[in-house]
Specification:
This protein is of the alpha+beta class. About 25% of the residues lie in helices and about 30% in strands. Strands 1, 2, 3, 4, 5, 6 and 7 form a 7-stranded antiparallel sheet that branches.
């Protein structure tokens, strides 16, 4: 099937799907969610273009933090190499988030101005990369069905999410690893993104 070939071609570590996630076929997702899952562009801009509504990016937490073992292997970290964990939530004209993202940033592989730009940029990591005109590319790792992250203050009505992980590489090295959770809703028998509305 085309859907299976797409997943195999674009997700390089699907066999590393964490044990707390369930596999899901691309054919179970509605067209917009499939496109969002496979995009290598800025999620907030994609959401605004689809919904024609402002997307609020709220920083939940940013702290120096060790990378979990199941993710650290993808970043090829040296012993003791510092990493910054950043958590954000995105809302599209609703109280509940439509997207959560947890990012692990390796500051030593990015320009010193990156974290400064990230702190002052309302469009998050993608907006900061664009602001600095930093040459980079993304490598999609895996995707599956899970539950919303249990971050303090982020409780809501969503019960299931579609999670994907990907790397952002600069100068030939992985500089960021990002896990995004997309809140799910039923959409005519398919899974769609909660918080979005049908557009004309």
């Amino acid at each position: 099937m085309v859907a299976d070939r797409l997943a195999a071609r674009h997700f390089t570590a699907q066999e590393d799907l964490p044990k707390d996630l369930e596999p899901v076929a691309l054919s179970a997702l509605n067209p917009f969610l499939r496109g969002l899952l496979l995009t290598d562009g800025t999620v907030s801009r994609t959401l605004e273009a689809h919904t024609l509504r402002p997307v609020l990016v709220e920083r939940v937490e940013q702290t120096e933090q060790a990378v979990p073992d199941e993710l650290a292997c993808h970043l090829h970290l040296a012993d003791g190499e510092p990493c910054v964990r950043r958590r954000i939530a995105m809302r599209i004209a609703t109280e509940d988030p439509s997207v959560w993202a947890e990012s692990f940033v390796v500051p030593g592989r990015l320009p010193p101005a990156f974290l400064t730009a990230l702190s002052g940029n309302g469009q998050g990591i993608g907006g900061s990369l664009q602001q600095l005109k930093l040459e980079s590319w993304r490598e999609l790792l895996w995707f599956g069905l899970g539950k919303p992250p249990a971050w303090p203050g982020q409780e809501g009505s969503v019960r299931r999410t579609l999670r994907r992980a990907y790397l952002i590489l600069t100068d030939g090295k992985p500089a960021l690893l990002i896990c995004e959770d997309f809140a799910l809703r039923e959409d005519s028998g398919l899974l769609g993104l909660a918080g979005t509305v049908d557009t004309r």
